[in-house]
Amino acid sequence: MAQIQNPVLKGFNPDPSILRVGDDYYIAVSTFEWFPGVNIYQSRNLKDWKFVAAALNDDRKLDLKGIDTACGIWAPNLTYDNGRFYLLYTIVYTNRSRFKDTHNFLVTAEKIDGPWSDPVYLNCSGFDPSLFHDGDKKWLVNMTIDHRVDKNRFSGVDIQEYDEAEQALKGPVYRIFKGSPIGTTEGPNMMKKDGYYYLTCAEGGTEFGHCVTVARSENITGPYEVDPENPMLTSKATEDYPIQRAGHGQLVEAADGSWFMAHLCSRPVDGCSILGRETAIQNIRWTEDGWFK
Fold first, then answer.
1. What is the pLDDT of residues 45-89, one digit of tens each?
2. Mean per-residue pLDDT of the chain
3. For site-directed labelling of 91, which of 13, 78, 212, 291 has its Cα 20 to 30 A away?
4. Annotated active-site residue in 128, 158, 186, 278
5. Which residues contact 11 (CB under 8 A, 6 or more apart)?
6. Annotated catalytic residue within 15, 158, 203, 227
7. Does residue 15 have an active-site annotation?
């Protein structure tokens, strides 16, 4: 594996979702109010990346007219199963008050450069959706918003089964995680390893307290235990470090069994992230007690 110098995707490349299919790695990033939506990059060594597709490139299927600044496409999630790519994303229509208007969609394709399917509407209970392929089942995972003024707005993480044949969610909704004490729980991703379901979340807000936290369970619907050494990734304790705002991470396993995490970051100048949020990659080491760092 080549030695990586972060950030690997410089400039405006936030909220990375990383995926490996065979020898190819892919990263999908947010594009917010800009069209086309969801930029996807490809690499063979995690160091050198090239742009390969803008997945949402048909203005008949994606209408962003009138979208306000910092709204639009948030936090795509890219997965692969049985010869098909799955891409989830949120369209945020309003973000100027507590009452966010967020709609979650799914598109699929047999090739990374498309053509991508018509979007399938999923729900509007929150944002940052991801899809977890668990054998013959698929689960939608997303953070939830509670609009009530006396409640925690970032109210936790829900999962619900997705019926691919019917192109619809089905069955009960499970609230599997209410967040760690760090709070502002978003960006959930799920994976399974050695009998445990691992849930990684972005917490602490997207400014300089941003981080990645972890919880795990032997059952997908919980209960989940929180990593006692959370956060597992952050830069908030090292103010002089050139890469700040580290968070919103997703794990990927290399062909040789090593593990990595792609996450967002920024390189502030006088406290201002003038290039926006960028994408970095870190080595991941699993510990003897089944956590990672």
1. 999 999 999 999 999 999 898 888 899 999 999 999 999 999 999
2. 95
3. 212
4. 186
5. 275, 276, 278
6. 15
7. yes
166 is catalytic: no
Asked whether 264 and 247 are in contact (CB, 8 A), the reply is yes
Question: CA 270, 69, 125 angle in degrees (round to 5)?
Answer: 110
Task: Please tell me the pTM assigned to this model.
Answer: 0.96
CA end-to-end span of the chain: 19
